[in-house]
Structure formats: structure tokens, C-alpha cells
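User: Please look over both lines:
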Amino acid sequence: MPGAAGPDPKAMTPSVAKLHVHAEAIDSVLARCGADPAEGLSDAEAAARLAKEGRNELPPQPRPSALKRFFVQFANPIVLTLLVAAVIALINGASRSDEPVLVRFGDAIAILLIVALNAMLGYYQEQRAEQALDALEKMQCTRARVRRGGRVVAIDAAEAVVGDLLEIEAGDAVPADARLLQTIDLAVEESSLTGESMPAGKDARAALAHDAPLGDRATMLFVGTSVVRGKGRAIIVATGPHTELGKLSELIRGAGERKTPLEEKLDHFGKRILWSCLALSALLFIRGSIKGDRHWHELLLEAVSLAVAAIPEGLPAITTITLALGMQRMAKRGAIIRKLAAVETLGAATVICSDKTGTLTQNEMTVREIFAGDERFHVTGTGYSPVGDIVRASNDEKVADASSPLSELFATVALCNNATLEPLGDGKWKITGDPTEAALLTLAAKGGAPRESIAPSMRVVKELPFDSDRKRMTIVTLDAAGREVVHTKGSADVLLPLCATVATAGGEVALDDASRARIIGEAERMSSEALRVLAVARRHFDGKTEDHPDEALEEHLTLLGLVGMIDPPRVGVKEAVRACADAQVRAVMITGDHKLTAVAIAKELGLWEEGAIALSGGELESMSDADLAAKIAHVRVFARVTAEQKLRIVRAFKVAGEIVAMTGDGVNDAPALREAHIGVAMGKDGTDVARQAADMVLADDNFATIVDAVREGRAIWRNIQKFIFFLLSSNAGLLFTVFAASFVPGLPPLTPLMILWINLVTNGLPALALGIDPPDPTQMQEPPREKTSGLVGTKGWIGILGVGVWMGGTALACYLIPWGDTVDAFPLHHGRALAFSLLALSPLFHAFNCRSPSESMLTIRPLVSRPLVLAVFVSAAIHMVAILVPSLRPIFRTYEMTAFEWEVMLLLSASIIPVIELFKFFQRLVVKEELPPTRRSGR
């Protein structure tokens, strides 16, 4: 290749970034990349490298196939147990050839239908979440300008290769990791990668240490960032998976999949149910085999009946539906849930690790304070919308017509500025250029001096651009009278020594030592409040500026004032943080920004409290895991941290026993989003990588939506506890009846179809209604549940046992009580039919008890749950079909009941209400000083 030096380009690896290229001499980088600084790569060489290295793209995040996603729904102990029961029921049905097919295989068909329903519901909801996420992600085709064969051409960024020479300027997206060769006032927005809210200045000739952190590598450009100011040339040193973005992608994959706390508890709970069912069924089968008085298929049927009675078949489906409905409610509030079980996880969260830039803050620089004419002014409004007021700090009076020096300050910041603002509608504005300059443009508009009104009378004739050495920018304009005026803005500590006078309300006065001390004090005060401070100055130049050297233009300036700006908190975030504090959920800020700025924002948001500490990335790096564990409970701010350190922080919280939620929007947040118990990404301004790594995506980028998710999650957990208690206690009645009846010779057992009918048809709807019970308004004033708390606790199991004994006892009474003059007047098969109806209807009364574990059903608010009332009536009506339709009576083993039988059966069914009310009454007497009512439970 002409002009190429160094090693054979065909021996190049896809990346040279691992060689500390940011600290390497430019000539050395060019030689190793085999690139000609004047000609660039030839088309043939670029094509050869593209074929060898691959396209400049990240490997797509693997997604399970539709088939795999469907079959994953069956990976649940209860579902697997039901499948085993279905197989046994099929075998048993096949052994009975003397009955109709529907009767023989009705049990197996019913079990398989409910398993399939559960799988389809789970698959459908998760598929909808993926489709919503796909619709949210914006597909972009980035272009890159590279030098090929001596010409600058625009190519698809995916075709860029190592050795390509990039030409970049303001507004460009960086297509690959590159080493800068030349820079002219270059600044890059890197917040999505480093977390730093301010643009990073770049200098191709900067001397850097080999171990310089990512945010300090001024000689480098990184894919995923954008140029906000200046121009530059660079050579690509890494593409695709070899870039810093690619490394983060590997970290995401390394984090692996993890189960949510709800999934873990449901798995544990399901396994306990599974082994208990198997043990009881095996015991019953072995006992019958030892007695030897019954056929094996009858014993098998009895064992299956017991297993079906013990297993809450509706639990997987109702859990899925409850979570799916929660998912839909949250979607209406702007939160897209990618995985059903994640809906509940935020309700258990004890720590929310939140990125600052773009999540807690707006990622829009805003001027907050002005010091001009020896006065302080506050500026209202946030972001780049020019809506706001200038208010005197001394008396809170709005400044209607700005006078000198305030008006001159507005004019200078509007003119000495290369940014542009473009309205997008709905109060949104698009900026081009440096966010700092955009904030100054907005300030001028709020002060009644938009650039459009000033520029026509002030023609720019010269510009001295900002650079990192001078730390200031200067322009020269011609006013309406033809006089040249110098406008300068820059760092206060640099600009103040260049000023000889200061503008006051009475005119320009000499800048004496007392005035300088006053101004320096104001600058230090603003800095202590984490404001970025700029000084603004002007000079009416005598003569022609072209006759003087550039440095002379910035002498003998008149100071117009100071402006202090910051990336402000998002609207509503302060209230959201307060709600988290009320719920005893600790909010922790994790940011790539400076510690001082981060702490100031934390204090403003209410994150900071007495005894809180902040740790920088450097401090974190020097700490052992033991030291971090000792301090992590008190840390409220982690500043200047890397992606790897974010991972370490999340893991440290998890080791400490916390349930961790992590919010973020940047590429650098993605690994920690994947590692946390639940990752929450921003949908509008967040990166695709972050959204792919998260469990929940905030479509509106509103941090306050997280609080809604916490509230929803807590309500879902409690409702899950309600319907689990309802299902298990109702099943306990079935189990007691089946088990006890097996020890009484001659009593016909409940058939598996009867049991499934009760579990799924009559119990299913009330359980679902309990799953959507209105939330308790006091739940957000209580601490998160303990991590070790189970779905059912000691008191819950006692209650389940008590309800089971009572329901089972009343059902056995239906078998044994002689209703006529003789026992023969009431055949035992009729007794089974009555027990079937009692066990179907008694849970409908019991459902009203389950709305609270300790409070009377007469004191719960709202007093009437319309979904539950509707579910009870519909379930009762459905059960009537099995009794009243003559053609169904042979299938369900029912018969036409007398009015007296109906009255007694209904009375026994309703007796569960006063029994449980009495139990709750005595419980309240014993536990008056316990936790609030909604937390007085083991379930």
C-alpha cells in the first residue's frame, strides 16, 4: 500500500486498543495500523480487512426461540407434578374400558388443559413485552466519513475497519474506537459511556498515563458517543466487539441470567408441595398394596386423587395472570416489563441504585444563578426551554427589563456561542453543539435577549475558539455604529485576571482587591453548590482588532458577571425519592460525574442524610471487599465509577442481603442492569444496549414511574399471598377429605375430575379476584418485606391446617350423617355428591376471609371488592351446571338434591366465615402490639 509503514496489514488484529493506544505516540499508532496519514486505506485494502475482521457491529443479544420460550413455561415443579399426574390418569383411564371415553380420560384432559393454558398465558405476555420493546428501540444507520485513497467518502459505519482515517465534526456520532491525530476545539459527549454529564475535551497531543481511566483518555474517541464541538481527525483502532462498547457487551453476557426473588420463592414453594404430594400419595398407595383388598388401578386412582387434591393446580395460571395484569397496569404508567416475575421484584427492593445523568437529572445543562452588578439572581425553569424568569435573590422580585450589566451579559453569552436551539414541539428543544453553550443561549432568551434579536445588529468578524489550554472563547463583533466589541466567556479563574474593570449599575468601575475578593467568593460559593461557574466579559475595542495580536484582544476586559449552571434534577424525582424513603427503600446514586457535583444533587433530591458518605471510583478501587462491605450501608453516592465498579457495587449490595434494583440509560450501565435483581432502563433517551440488558424499561424516562412500580410490586406480592392462602386452605379441605375417606371402608372417594373441577373452575375465579384486590393505601409507609419471608409463614400454615380440618370435617359429615329414616335412604354415593358441592361452595364463602390475614372482613377497605363478588357468583353459577344439568350428572357423579339438602349443605359451607372471624378476633387480642395489620402475617 503506498505510504504504508510498519508490519504487514494482513497480520493486523481487529483491535490495537489493548496496547494502551491512548498513551502511544501518533506515529507509532499509524505504523502499527498500516495507515497512510495522507491517503488513508485503499478500497481494496479496506475490503480485505472488512472480510477478515468482520463488520463493525456488536453481536446481537441472543434471544430464545419462540419454541424454547414456550417450553420454558413448563419449568415449574407444580406444573411438572401435574404432568406426571396427567400421565398416571391416562394410564388409569386406559385400564377402564367399560366407561365412556370422556369419563375415563376426563381427569387427564382437565389437567393437560390447565397446564397448556398456563403456558400459553406466560408465553403470550412475555412475547408482547418483547414486541413492545422492539417497537421502542429506534433503528439507526450511522454513517462515517473516512479517507479512502486520498478522498473523503461517507460509508456505512458497519463497514469501517481498523486503520480507517476518520474525519469528524460537531454533530457526528463516533462510529468506532479511534486514536485522535488532530483536534481543533474538539469536545465529545460521553455520558452514555462514562456517566460524565459534561462534554469531554479532546486533545490529540495530550500526554497520558498508560493506566488513565476511560473518562480521562483525551486522545481517544469511543463508539456510542457524539461530537458536540470542534473538528478532528482520528485513526480507527478497534471495531465491533473489540471496542469499549463491545467489552461492556461481554460483561453483560458474563453476568448471566438470574432468577427474581419471586421466582426463587415459587420454585422453593413448588418443590415443597411436590415432595409432600409424592410422599402422601406413595403412603396411600403402599398402604393399599399391603392390605391387598383392592386392584392396583384403583389404588393408583386414589393416589392420583390425593396428589391432585394436594396440588393447587390453579396456582401457576393464576400467578401468571396476576403478574400479566400487573404488567399491563404498569405499561399504562410507562413501564414495559420484559419478564413476568420481574413485576413483583421492585416491591421487594431494599436498594435502588440509580444513575445520575439522564435518570435523576435531565442531562440538560441549566443556568441556576447569576452574579452581576454586585447582585445575585436566581434563574427559574429547567432544560433548554426558554421559559423562566430572572429573580433577584435579595427580594424574590422578577426582573422585567434587564438593565446594564445584566442585559450586556445576556447579549454576550448569546453572541459568544456556537450552539443552536431548535423547537421540536410540546416544550421540547433540540440542541446542536455544546450543552454549556445551549444553556447560555437559553439564559439569554429567558432574559429577553435571544440571539435572533441581537445578531442582526452585531456582525461577527473574528473568533478565537475555546480550547483546553486557554479555557475561554472570544468573538469580535461590529455594532450598529461600526465599533468593534470583544465578547469573552470562560473559566472564572482564567478570565478574572484578564479583567481591569467591572460593570455595575452605575457604569464601569475599577476592579480593586475588594471587588476581586467579592467575585472570587461568589465563584467559590457557586462551586461549592456543584455549579459550573463561567465568567462573562466584554471590551469596547479602540481601533481595529486585526491590527493587534490575538492575546491582546483578551486584555483590559470588563467583567459583566458570573453564571452558575448545573444538570438539574428531573421534574418529580424529588417527590419520588421521598416516596422511596417513606417506603424505607434506600436510593443510592451511582455516577461517572465528580463527587462534589453528585453530592450536591443528592442533597437537593433528598438522597443525602446524616451519616451518609460518598465514595469515588479511586477510593473504591483501593478498598477491599471487606472494607466495602463495612461501609456500603452508609454510602449514598458513588462518583467517578467505571462499569466494572458498578458491577462490584451491585454485587456488594447483594452479598449484604439487599434486593437490588439498578436504573440507568447508558452503555456503561448495562452490565450492572443485568446483574441486579431487576434492571430498569430508560426507554426514550436510553441506549439500546441498556434496554436489552434490563428487566424493565421506562418508556417515559420518568424516575417517578419506579415508585409506581414499587407500589404495584408490593400490592402484587400481598395479593399473591392472599390467593395462595386461599388455594392452599381450600385444597387442605380436599386433602383432608380424600385422605380421611381412604381409611373408612366403603366410602367412595372424590374422583380426580371432581377435585380438578373444584380447584380450577370454582376456586380459580375467586383466587384470580384476590390477585387483583385493591392495594392497601398504607403499604408504601411500611418497610420492604424481609428477604427470608416466605410465601406462607408459620401463622399461615396454622390457618391452612385449621381451614382444611373444618372444611374436611363438614365434607365428611355429608358422607356420614343419615338424612332419612335409615342409612339406606341416603346412599353413600349421594353423600359424595353432597361433599363435592360443599367443597366447591365453601371456598367461595372463605374467599372473603382471605382479603386480610388478621382484620375482620367487615372492617377492610374497600368493604366490597367488586371483582371478588362477581367471581363468587360466577363460580357458584358454573358449579350449578354440574348439578342441575341432567346430562352432566353421570360425568360428575351428582344427582338431583332436595331443598332440605341444599339448605344444610349451604349452611355448612357458610360456617367457615364465623369460624375464621372468631380466629382473627382472638389473634388480634394476642398481637395488638405487632406490626400494622397488612404485615401481621406469615403468609
About this structure: The first strand starts at residue 143 and ends at 148. Residues 1-14, 136-141, 820-825, 929-939 have pLDDT under 50 and may be disordered. Residues 202 and 530 are 23 Å apart (CA to CA). The radius of gyration is 36 Å.
